Amino acid sequence: MMVAKDNNHQGYHGNFAKQFHKGKWFMVFGSSLILSFAGGSYMFGMYSKDLKATLGYDQTTLNTIGFFKNLGANSGIISGLITEITPTWMILLIGAVTNFVGYFMVWLSITQKIPKPEVWQMCLYFVIGTHSQNFAATSVMISCVNTFPLNRGIVVGFLQSFVGLSAAIISQFHKTIIASCSVHYYYQDTRSIVLVLAVFPAIVSILFAFTIRGFEPSTQFNDTRPFFHFFYIATALATFILGITITHLFECHLSKFAYHLIAFLIFLFLLVLPLFVAIREDLFLWKLSEAESENLNVIIENQENDGRANNINNNVFLF
C-alpha cells in the first residue's frame, strides 16, 4: 500500500521547478490568466463608434454586427463538440488562432488598411473573433472542474470572476502599456483596442496551451483554502481597477507616464499574485512527497536489514 501511495506522488519528485510547471496549481494560475483575457466581447462598446465613423455604418448596421458578435460569444456548442475528440492544447491553439484572425481582420478594416468589407464579412469577423473565447473557457473549465471535483462550485466561481474582470483587465493593459508608453495618437484612438484584443488573448493562450490539461481528480478537502485566497486576490484586483478608474477622473500631481507606470506595476503584481499561492501549494505537496519517499526508503532498508539478519541466523543454525 505504501508503494502505491508513493506512485501517486511520484510526479513531485526531482526538481521542484520542473514539477511545478507540470503541476495542477500552475494549471489553475494559467487558467486565471487565460480567462483574464477572454472577455473581448464585452468591449464592443469601446470601439463601436469607430466602426460607424470609419466604415460609415448606421445604427441598424451596428446593431446587426452586435447581434453576430453576441452570437459568436454565446454559441459554445462547436467548442464543446471539438473538446470531445481533441486534446486540451489543441482547443486552446484553435481559440488563439480564431481570436487573432477575427479581431485582426476587424482591426485591418477599422484602420482602413484593407478595402472596406461588406457587412456580412464584418459580421463573420466578429463571429470568429468572439467565438474564440468559448474555446478558452471550455478547455479551462473542464480541466479545472475535473481536477477538483469536490470544489467544482468554488472553482467555477473563481474562474468566472476573472472572466468578469477581463474587459477591465484588457482595458487597463491598453491604457498602461500602449497609452502611456506609445505616442499620444493611440491614447485618443480607441481603434488600437481591437489590436490589443487580437494579440494579447492569443499570446496568453499559446503560452499556457500545454499547461492546461487533465489531472487525476483531487480528493482533498483542504484544496478549498487556496481557492479562497484566489478569491481574495481577485477581489483586490477588482477594487484596485475601480480605484484607478475613479482617481483617473481627478487631477493627479504625477505626470501621465508616472501615473500609468505606477498603476501598471501594482496591477501586474495583483495579476500574477495567484502564482505565489500556486507555488506555496505545490511546494507543500512536493515536501510531503519527499518525506513519504524518505520514510518508504527507511522501511525498505529496515526490511532488507531484517532479511539479512534472518539469513545470517539461518546460516548459523545450519552450521
Please name the defining characteristics of this protein.
single chain; disordered N terminus; mainly alpha; about 325 residues; Growth Hormone, Chain: A
How would you briefly describe this protein structure?
This protein has helices at residues 2-8, 16-21, 24-36, 44-55, 59-74, 77-83, 88-110, 119-147, 152-181, 184-188, 192-207, 224-247, 256-318.
Topology, element by element:
Elements: H1 2-8, H2 16-21, H3 24-36, H4 44-55, H5 59-74, H6 77-83, H7 88-110, H8 119-147, H9 152-181, H10 184-188, H11 192-207, H12 224-247, H13 256-318
Helix pairs in contact: 3-8, 3-9, 3-13, 4-5, 5-8, 7-8, 7-11, 8-9, 9-11, 9-12, 9-13, 12-13
Describe the structure.
It is a single chain. This protein has 319 residues and is mainly α. The protein has a single domain (30-211, 221-300), classed as Growth Hormone, Chain: A. It has 13 helices and no strands. The protein has helices spanning 2-8, 16-21, 24-36, 44-55, 59-74, 77-83, 88-110, 119-147, 152-181, 184-188, 192-207, 224-247, 256-318. Helix 3 (24-36) runs antiparallel to helix 8 (119-147). The chain crosses the membrane at residues 25-45, 89-110, 122-142, 154-173, 193-215, 227-250, 257-279.
